[in-house]
Every structure is written in C-alpha cells, then in structure tokens.
C-alpha cells in the first residue's frame, strides 16, 4: 500500500506539473499574440 500511495503522490505531482506547463504555454502564446497586435498597430 505504501507503493500505491507513493504512485498516487507521483501521479498527482506529474498532473500538477503538466497543468503548470500548459498554463505557461498559454500565457506565452497570449503574450506573443498581444505583441503582434501592438506591432500591427504601430506599423499600420
């Protein structure tokens, strides 16, 4: 049962890390889109 508990903890941590990674990628994508819009405004 200790192994099962350790696996559950590891699985939960992995899911949390994957979620953080997805949110980070989304944030970078949004920032990139915003900068492209600003460049379009300046360039006409």
From TrEMBL:
It holds the Pfam family Flagellin_C. Coiled coil: none annotated. Keywords: Cell projection, Cilium, Flagellum. This is Flagellin. InterPro entries: Flagellin_C. Residues 2-42 form the Flagellin C-terminal domain. It comes from the Bacteria. SUPFAM superfamilies: Phase 1 flagellin. The lineage of its organism: Bacteria, Pseudomonadati, Pseudomonadota, Alphaproteobacteria, Hyphomicrobiales. Transmembrane segments: none annotated.
């Amino acid at each position: 049962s200790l192994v099962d508990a350790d696996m559950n903890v590891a699985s939960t941590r992995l899911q949390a890390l994957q979620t953080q990674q997805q949110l980070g990628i989304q944030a970078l994508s949004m920032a990139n889109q915003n900068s492209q819009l600003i460049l379009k405004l300046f360039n006409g």
